[in-house]
Amino acid sequence: MSRTSAEPKEATISVRMPVNLKDALAELAAAEAKPVGELLRDLVRERVKRAEREKFAAEARRQSLLLAEAARYSASDEAQIMRELDANFDEFARERAARETAVEAHATREKPSP
Questions:
Q1: Contact status, residue 79 vs residue 67, Cβ threshold 8 Å
Q2: 3-state secondary structure (DSSP) of residue 16
Q3: Hey, is 8 helix, strand or coil?
Q4: Region of 74 on the Ramachandran plot (φ > 0 left; ψ -120 to 50 alpha; else beta)
Q5: Is residue 13 part of a domain?
Q6: Same domain, 114 and 84
Q7: Is 99 within 8 Å of 106 (Cβ atoms)?
Q8: Do 27 and 58 fall within a single domain?
């Protein structure tokens, strides 16, 4: 069957490393019952995911700072949204405090007298 894509599904990478590091990697792979290649692929995947998370976090921070700056102006949409969020949070906090008080009151009534 011929390939439907011009790009190969996998590529080979040659890596030079000190013998002691190669031996340690082989020991680690043996301890995990994995081939060295699979262990290396796992390590590369983890590093790529970490880089993606770091890039996402940096972009989220950048956007957050832009929104915070815009929210400093009381007439802005961002400031209005922050006021609404604060009000919602205050309402949530009051409701939670009331639930906790009710639970504590119920627990106190349920305790047997000594």
A1: no
A2: coil
A3: coil
A4: alpha
A5: no
A6: yes
A7: no
A8: yes
14 is a domain residue: no
- Structural domains counted in the chain: 2
Segment 79-87 mean pLDDT: 92
Residue entry with tokens 């995947």: 45
> Is position 8 within any domain?
no
Alpha-carbon distance of 111 to 104, in angstroms, equals: 11
107 and 92 in a common domain:
yes
Determine the structural domain holding residue 34 and report its residue range. 19-71
pLDDT digits (tens, 9 = 90+) for 25-69: 999 999 999 999 999 999 999 999 999 999 999 999 999 999 889
The owner of tokens 């002691």 is: 20
Residue 87 resides in a domain: yes
What is the DSSP code string of 21-38? HHHHHHHHHHHTT--HHH
CB atoms within 10 A of CB 41: 13
Give the span between the Cα atoms of 10 and 89, in whole angstroms. Answer: 50
The pTM score is: 0.58
93-99 long-range Cβ contacts below 8 angstroms, 24+ apart? none
